[in-house]
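the two lines:
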Amino acid sequence: MIEARGLTKRYGDTLAVDDLSFTVEPGRVTGFLGPNGAGKTTTMRLILGLDRPTAGTVTVNGQPFTASLAPMRAVGALLDAKAVHGGRSARDHLLCLAQTNNLPARRVDEVLDLVGLSSVAGKRSRGFSLGMGQRLGIAAALLGDPAVLMFDEPVNGLDPEGILWIRTLIKRLAAEGRAVFVSSHLMSEMENTADHLIVIGKGRLIADCPMAGFLAQGSRAAVRVRTPDPERLAVLVTADGGTIRDDGDGRLVVAGLPPERIGDLAYENGVRLHELAAAQASLEQAFMELTGAAVEFRAGRQHADDDILTGSGV
Amino acid sequence: MTTTSMAPAAAGHPAPPRSAGRATLAGALRSEFTKIRSVRSTYWTLLAMLVIVIGVGALFSYGAAQNFSHIPPGAQAASRAHEIAQATQRSLFGLILGQLIIAVLGALTVTSEYSTGMIRTSLSVQPRRGVVFAAKALVFSAIALVAGLVASFASYFLGQAILSGQHINSTLGQPGVLRAVIGGGLFLAACGLLSYGLGALIRHTAGALTASFGLLFVLTILAGFLPQSWAVHIDKWVPFNAGGAIWENSSGVHIFSPWTGFAVFCGYAAVAVAAGLYRFRRDA
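prediction for all of em together
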């Protein structure tokens, strides 16, 4: 169990984490959502004691992680799969970690087997693919058979097979009674995995609720439209109670109307459509709806809409 | 810990015995030894140090023997005592370059953790930074001392074997000789530790090496340009002159005595290590 109370981290003028309080319970997957730069990684670093909070506290199983006598049994973390010495073999990497906590060497072979890296255990990790590196990081997190697991953007850059593998593993770890804390900047990644969501933006807590509650709360479906006559469509959509905005990529994003209604509106009024597609409602959009600060949120994020149009099923 | 009850063993992979799992200094030492023995740079660096220290010592000894053989036999007796007094230092002359190579290993021991990002992984499995820092320093020092003693003794024996052809060699039994040869190993270990501290302070390999080389090497050269009236006061405090006193025996009257000089040098290393520890504990 992880408990953060009033957790705050300031870097110079920037509040990276702003008065966060939340609890990560055992036996379930807690998704930690927020756009890039929202403070997710900083929060995880504070949990591990890699940074010191400016204010507030965070404990793991009732005590600060840095006070833990058996740290690897308390928390297994994968913050950055590239945080290894590439000149060391996978087995030696895991061995030197296991030795710090007096874990038996056979545990290294067990986790190598568990993540499917046994055949490359003697190879230097420099030559590993992204997916193999991620598996090595997960093997390290599992070494101590920990009560709490933390994964920072674990599926970033992985192929579909790797993503499925990690999702299955994460669910299994929670089913075994562990507290699993998984961050992501994409809603779609959490939908099939998380039982509970903690959502942050600009370092502040936006939502802390069960998965089902979050989906009901925000995240209406958005529709992606391309038309040679955007001005007329905007008038029609707005008149019909929808909202419309330009995503800057020659497309429009309509919220509040189903695709069928938009298609009908266009047909009835003779507006040509070149594209009409339901887009996965993303975390960013849910943010806008939840916070009502869309303009402020979009400022400074040139490619925000690339994320908004991320399709489902990834 | 009460928390372990929350972590049932995962199906298919049994939990480690409950007696294990504690993060101790002994564990940290084993871990740091695994780290240093499992990367190739350790072997290359140590091999380079041995080759250069021994090779340079042999070269200097060979040169001295050659020069001596060209002195007319009648005049040799007059300079033999001087040659013998120089014999130990000549065979150990490679330490001047060896100190720079062990400094590379000392810096890499800690800077490679930052350059690769490994430090974050290391500190997430053992959050007690003082333990990590001490274990690293102890393991590196032990390896540097063993390698340093091997280099020092090997270059001494090889050098003396070369000099003995002209009967201008020293023996370990002569006053100060054993101290100088053991001192060569101690000197290398202390150089490495100084660089380790700078590595922890600066966290970048290139920066740490620049600082080490500057302190150990460049400063020595610069000191040579000082006016004589300053030099007599400053020379002995130059790191190399202080540390080198333990294996050099002819560097002039205004140099510290061997053990005092070495203690001063260890003081410099201690300052670097303390500064490194201070930064090591601050953030990652």
